[in-house]
Write a structure and sequence with these properties.
Chain lengths: ~160, ~120
Amino acid sequence: MSVTSLDKDFDNLTLTLIADFAAPAERVWQLWADPRQLERWWGPPTYPATVKEHDLTPGGDVTYYMTSPEGETHHGWWRITSANPPKSLEFSDGFADQDGNPLAEMPVNTMQLQLTEHDGGTRMELRSVYDSKEQMDQLLSMGMDEGLQLAVGQIDAILADDGL
Amino acid sequence: MVVDGVTDEAVDQLFHALADTTRRDIVRRCGRGEASVSRLAEAYPMSFAAVQKHVAVLERAGLITKERRGREQLVRTDPEAVERAHQALDQLATTWRGRVDRMSELLAQDQPSQDNVSTRRQDP
C-alpha cells in the first residue's frame, strides 16, 4: 500500500488522498497521460476500463467505459479544466449514456491532481469534490464501481427485509 | 448496474426510485421530519394519486417508510438510507485505495528487479 493519508470531509463532501510512489513525477504522470496505462488502473479487474478519447489539454475530453463481468458497459467522461504536465491536472468526472454523451442529471465530481517531488519519489495528492449532497445520494444508486458494492449490498439487504 | 450478489431487480428499483426529481425531493423533505401524503400532495403540481404513486415507488426501494396515523399516512425518510449517503465518501475512498494499489503495481513492473513502491510509508 502506498496510500499515505486519506481524509474525508463530510461537510464539504471532499475526499483528499495522499499517496507516495518511488518513481519520478514524469513516470507517475504517464499513468494518467497514457490511455493504455490509465486503463490498467482506473477500473478494478472485475470492471476493466476502456479509454476511447483521451485529450489531457484544457477543454479536452477523456471518454471511457467500464465492462461488467456480464459484459454490460458503463460509460463515463472527463472534461479537462487545467493541465500542467507532469505537475497538476484538474477535471470534471461524470457519467455518460451508452453512446458516450454526458448525462446531465447524473452526479459530477471535480478532481484535482497534484504531483510533487517528495523523499526521492513522487507524492500524489488527489482531491475529489462533490457539488452537493443530492449528487452523493444519487451516486448511491449507481454502483459505479467496486467502491460502491458495499452500498448496493446494504440496499439489497433492506429490499430483502421488505420482503421484496 | 449489476454488482456481484445483487439482483438486477433490486438495483433497478433503487435506480428508478432516485431517477425522478419529485421523488428525490420527497426523500429530502421527509428527511427533515415526517410529512403526510396529503401535505406532500399540496407541495407538488400533481394529483394526490400521483404523489401517492411516487411515495409507493420510494417505499418499495427502501428509501422511505410509511405509517398510518389516524386518517393520515405519514412518510419518513429511512435514516439508514440517509446514512448510506454519508457512506458514499467511504466508498469513494475504497475506490481510490484500489486505484492507488493498481498504480503502485504498474510502477513496480517498470523495474521488476527492484522495489519500486515505497514501503516506508505503509498504511496502518
